[in-house]
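Run log // design_07
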């Protein structure tokens, strides 16, 4: 079964935007500390950024369902971040970086649920794993190229020059979006029922609750990069290691998505929980830079197994009439919890060290895996 052109076009848009975003992201932790921020401030900035993105995901999904269209929210969600690069390039304090991250993640929040709903509506259910896997792969391929470009440009233009240069792929992503043709729209709904959990399928509610627990185990990837720096890697080597992580993630996404279509989405989601716990244990016990890099590369397996398959699995649990709203609610709940998760992680690191912070994250991931396996009778998903 061939995937429709829509999947490739949305993948192209995400590829270009991730080139722009990931040129910036690996440099932010060190840029922030250079502006006088501590580890706890880094946790605050990243927590606020991710929580903001997630809060706006349900907003974007709700507006999209009400309009009966997905593309207007995509144009807004990709266009806003494309205009914000100067704010970061001219930043003089951690507060400026926080403002940039807030506005940038607002755009991400508005576009995520409509984009995921558009993918789910344009692909047969039996190919959802491949579709989401391919999209995540193209998205992450951009995330691979971004840090590599940052690594190559950094010695010549400096950190702020890299931030300016990231405006080019961001603008191209917005322009590429005009190539996307949305399938026949549903009529606008001015009387969309209120979004209530009790009206959602039980399998969706259980997965939402379990995902909330797992979100408490998550911390910003910025902490992983900071851990590599603590283990002895230079700023350029950290950017290069992050490039390798994204490349492996991109290469594994489609094969693991295809595997999920054959073996069952639940099995691959469970694999993601397990590998995440192993990764955090690896970072907790790491005593050298190679050990840290190995843990980061294992993290790519988690990302490839979980990110696409969990989105595809979620798409099988939500009602068609409120698909974007339900997907947005899921992302919002998970993302809002990233704020306390990142704050807690930063405080644990600062008070007790990286070993304790990563160990707590691994323990919460194993608890989430246990509960997910216990709930093996969820309906509405692929067998297995």
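design_07 sequence
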């Amino acid at each position: 079964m061939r995937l429709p052109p829509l999947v490739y076009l949305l993948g192209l848009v995400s590829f270009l935007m991730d080139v722009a975003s990931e040129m910036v992201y690996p440099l932010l932790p060190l840029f922030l500390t250079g502006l006088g921020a501590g580890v706890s401030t880094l946790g605050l900035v990243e927590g606020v950024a991710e929580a903001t993105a997630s809060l706006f995901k349900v907003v974007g999904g709700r507006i999209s369902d009400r309009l009966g269209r997905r593309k207007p929210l995509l144009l807004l969600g990709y266009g806003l971040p494309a205009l914000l690069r100067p704010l970061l390039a001219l930043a003089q304090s951690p507060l400026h970086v926080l403002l940039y991250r807030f506005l940038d993640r607002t755009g991400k929040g508005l576009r995520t649920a409509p984009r995921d709903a558009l993918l789910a509506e344009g692909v047969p259910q039996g190919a959802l794993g491949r579709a989401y896997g391919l999209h995540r792969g193209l998205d992450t391929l951009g995330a691979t190229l971004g840090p590599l470009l940052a690594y190559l440009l950094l010695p010549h233009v400096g950190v702020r020059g890299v931030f300016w240069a990231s405006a080019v792929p961001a603008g191209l992503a917005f322009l590429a979006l005009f190539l996307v043709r949305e399938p026949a729209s549903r009529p606008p709904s001015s009387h969309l029922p209120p979004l209530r959990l009790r009206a959602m399928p039980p399998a969706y509610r259980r997965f939402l609750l379990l995902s909330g627990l797992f979100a408490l185990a998550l911390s910003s990837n910025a902490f992983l990069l900071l851990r590599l720096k603590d283990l002895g890697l230079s700023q350029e080597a950290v950017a290069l290691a992050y490039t390798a992580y994204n490349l492996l993630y991109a290469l594994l996404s489609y094969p693991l998505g295809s595997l999920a279509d054959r073996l069952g989405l639940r099995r691959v989601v469970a694999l993601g929980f397990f590998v995440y716990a192993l990764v955090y244990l690896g970072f907790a016990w790491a005593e050298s830079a190679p050990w840290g890099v190995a843990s980061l590369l294992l993290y790519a397996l988690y990302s490839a197994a979980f990110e696409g398959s969990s989105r595809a699995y979620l798409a099988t649990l939500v009602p068609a009439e409120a698909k974007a709203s339900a997907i947005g609610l899921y992302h919002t709940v998970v993302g809002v919890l990233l704020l306390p998760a990142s704050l807690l992680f930063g405080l644990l690191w600062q008070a007790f060290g990286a070993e304790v912070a990563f160990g707590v994250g691994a323990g919460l991931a194993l608890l989430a895996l246990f509960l997910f396996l216990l709930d093996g009778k969820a309906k509405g998903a692929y067998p297995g």
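The chain has one domain: 5-178+200-374.
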